[in-house]
């Protein structure tokens, strides 16, 4: 099969012919129809994730058709159209038993612990726990966008941040996860302020339901002014020390910070203002994806026309453009989500 192969961290990836994967007894192999290009893939390429072993194929946001099924799989068959969370859970640990598969202690992750979906085929573990059936006619590009950024933003806003109608919500970063958070918060009736250095990203944030979109420089003061003293909920959708600290400082008293973007050690440690956390009784929360069993709530939001999923995908490229698209993530030269089409 063809795959985007990384042979040296930070060096240009290239399209290569590699062996086809085979399913584990509990897993499947999926023929990839579309796969998103995410900042997490960029981190893997840069060597920021200790799970990644070279040579490596990135990619963890995917949609496709089941092409092969392991002997122990009961609920899925060749020809089923599916997507999956980026955390493929074991289904048996205490966290999984409690329904929290997104923090499974024995999790695997395509594109991190193993080869991912920047390829014609990808192997997925524990299929009966992790696969999500796609509604008939659901576009592959839209489904690929669900797997990490949209699903992560949905749970971060609705469950972890517990956003309520009428609350002020600040979203720091208007890439794929940030735009998703803007749209989900707006659908919940919140009043959203988006923060991003890119004018194009800010324009998209307004189109996705933000009341205001402000530049990154001076963002804390701007957010506090626009929200009458600070946001009720603020999300860092980028994962940099500056955006993390800025998100916390954007809160009103008793506000809730949700960390969604990864904070790799290579970027430095964030300076979380714990004095404010104590004095203002702030909540500092983490959010890590969403379990497969939660997807029906998200699909219902899309089906009801309350989430503009199709508008989130702004570039649709062939697989051979993968190396270039991966490199562009670090420069943040495009707004919205880029998908590759094997």
From TrEMBL:
Cofactors, names only: Zn(2+)
| A UniProt-annotated Pfam family | ADH_N
Query: SUPFAM superfamilies per the record?
Result: GroES-like, NAD(P)-binding Rossmann-fold domains
Superkingdom field? Bacteria
Q: Does the keyword Ribosomal protein apply?
A: no
Per UniProt, residues of the Enoyl reductase (ER) domain are 10-340
UniProt-listed Gene3D superfamilies: Medium-chain alcohol dehydrogenases, catalytic domain
Q: Which residues form a coiled coil?
A: none
Q: Which UniProt keywords apply?
A: Metal-binding, Oxidoreductase, Zinc
**According to its UniProt record, which protein family does this protein belong to?**
Belongs to the zinc-containing alcohol dehydrogenase family.
Can you name this protein? Zinc-binding dehydrogenase
């Amino acid at each position: 099969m063809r795959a985007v192969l990384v042979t040296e961290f930070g060096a240009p990836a290239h399209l290569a012919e590699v062996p086809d994967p085979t399913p584990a007894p509990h897993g499947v192999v999926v023929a990839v129809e579309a796969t998103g290009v995410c900042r997490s893939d960029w981190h893997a390429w840069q060597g920021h994730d200790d799970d990644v072993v070279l040579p490596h194929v990135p990619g963890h946001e995917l949609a496709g058709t089941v092409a092969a099924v392991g002997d122990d799989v009961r609920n899925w068959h060749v020809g089923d159209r599916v997507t999956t969370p980026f955390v493929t859970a074991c289904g048996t640990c205490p966290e999984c038993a409690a329904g929290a598969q997104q923090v499974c202690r024995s999790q695997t992750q395509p594109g991190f612990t193993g080869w991912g979906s920047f390829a014609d085929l990808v192997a997925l573990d524990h299929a009966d726990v992790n696969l999500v059936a796609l509604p008939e006619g659901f576009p592959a590009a839209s489904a690929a966008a669900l797997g990490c950024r949209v699903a992560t933003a949905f749970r971060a806003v609705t469950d972890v941040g517990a956003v309520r109608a009428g609350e002020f919500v600040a979203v720091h970063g208007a890439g794929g996860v940030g735009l998703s958070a803007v749209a989900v918060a707006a659908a919940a009736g919140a009043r959203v302020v988006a923060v991003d250095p890119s004018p194009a990203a800010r324009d998209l944030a307004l189109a996705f339901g933000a009341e205001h979109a402000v530049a990154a420089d001076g963002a804390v003061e701007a957010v506090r002014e626009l929200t009458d003293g600070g946001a009720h909920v603020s999300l860092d959708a980028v994962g940099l020390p500056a955006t993390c600290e800025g998100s916390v400082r954007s809160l009103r008293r008793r506000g809730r910070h949700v960390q969604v973007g990864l904070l790799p050690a290579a970027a430095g440690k964030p300076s979380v203002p714990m004095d404010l956390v104590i004095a203002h009784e702030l909540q500092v929360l983490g959010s890590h994806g969403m379990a497969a069993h939660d997807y029906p709530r998200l699909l219902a939001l899309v089906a009801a026309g309350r989430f503009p999923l199709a508008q989130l995908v702004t570039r649709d490229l062939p697989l051979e453009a993968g190396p270039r698209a991966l490199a562009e993530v670090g420069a943040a030269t495009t707004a919205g989500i880029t998908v590759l089409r094997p």
